[in-house]
Each structure stands twice: as C-alpha cells, then as structure tokens.
Amino acid sequence: SLNCVEWSLLPPATKEMVVLAGKLKGRFQGDPSFEYDYTEINAEDAERLLEDGKEPIIKEETRLVATIEQIDSAVGIVPRGAFVKTPLGSVHENRNFEGLSLMEAKKLSSYFHFTEPVNLKNKTLLEKADLDPSVDFLDSLEHDIPQGSWTVQLEKGGTVVVLRSLLWLGLTFYHVPVTKQYGYVYFGTGEKNLDLPFML
C-alpha cells in the first residue's frame, strides 16, 4: 500500500526472485516501483541473466516479496502441538491444542519452524525414538545454527512468553501459556544480521 488505505496482494515468491534479492544490500527505499541499479547485484549474476535474454531489473516490490519469503522460511515458528500430522501425511491445525504450560513455554525445544523439516531427516533412529510422529514432525528451534540465535523472555509478570530472533532483528514471536494465543510479527529493516556468529 502506498496510502495505507488501498491494499493489494504481493505476487508469490520464486526461487529466482529470492536469489536476486539476496544479492542486494542496504535498506528499502519505500517505493515499490524503485529499480535497483545493475551495479548493486553481482556482475557475474547480471551477465548470466543477460545471456539468458533477461534484463536484470530488480524492483523494490520483488525484493520485498523475496525478503518476506526468506523471513517466513527462516523464522516463522509455531508452538509444539499447534499442528498435527495425520497418518496419511497431511498437516492440520490441532483443535485440541490448549497451549503450552509455562514450564514448557520457556524452552526452545517447545517451538518449531513452520516449514519443511531439514534437520529432522538427519536424526538417527535412536533420536527419533522419543519423538511423537504426529506432533514432532518439524524442526525444533533448539538445533538452530548458530546456537543462541533466539532469546526467550517472560513479559507481563510471566503471563506472556516472547521469543526474539537475533538473525532477523525485529522478529518477535509471542505465546500466552495455557491458551491458544500465539503469533509473530516482524518490524525490522529487512536485512539479515550476518554479524550474528561474531556477536555470540
């Protein structure tokens, strides 16, 4: 939206959009039609695109779509048990989910990335033996690399658990223990904190 009254949907992100947007540095301009200069992307990538017959034009709208996709896939999270996997493989919202206990809500292992699992496939049979396949089918935050890329805090006298990402500064996840209330919001610059490994 340019006027905060009329809103339109962004197009879905493609792999090419994510790759091109990942090459850009610096903050957003605030104008969806702004075009980034060719010098702002790697000369090798620009040459490859020209060979393919495509002009390497990257608009701010494309960069925004790609950045949202990156943030959702990297730090979009849900509490353990909020979604269940059926024996046929489909994933549904768990209508019986009543929230995590306060003790469980303070642990990183109680939260999962809401994307296709990567680390789960690499676990041994002994590690998978203690997991419930209907609930533990996503990657846990406790195994994120680098270690320490999440902070867990209690707010409002211990009635709200807040997780903040140090990789995507500005992402805040909240969960009210023993309720179905949870969610996340991102208020940041749209830049990944690449200095994180050196800060920990």
Automatic annotation (TrEMBL):
Subcellular location: Cell projection, Kinocilium; Cytoplasm, Cytoskeleton, Flagellum axoneme
Keyword Ligase included in the entry's annotation: no
Residues forming coiled coils: none
Tagged with keyword Magnesium: no
Any one annotated GO CC term: kinocilium
One Gene Ontology biological process: motile cilium assembly
Main localization, broad class: other
Keywords: Cell projection, Cilium, Cilium biogenesis/degradation, Cytoplasm, Cytoskeleton, Flagellum
Similarity-based family: Belongs to the flagellar radial spoke RSP9 family.
Name of the featured protein: Radial spoke head protein 9 homolog
Annotated organism of origin: Cuculus canorus (Common cuckoo)
Taxonomic classification: Eukaryota, Metazoa, Chordata, Craniata, Vertebrata
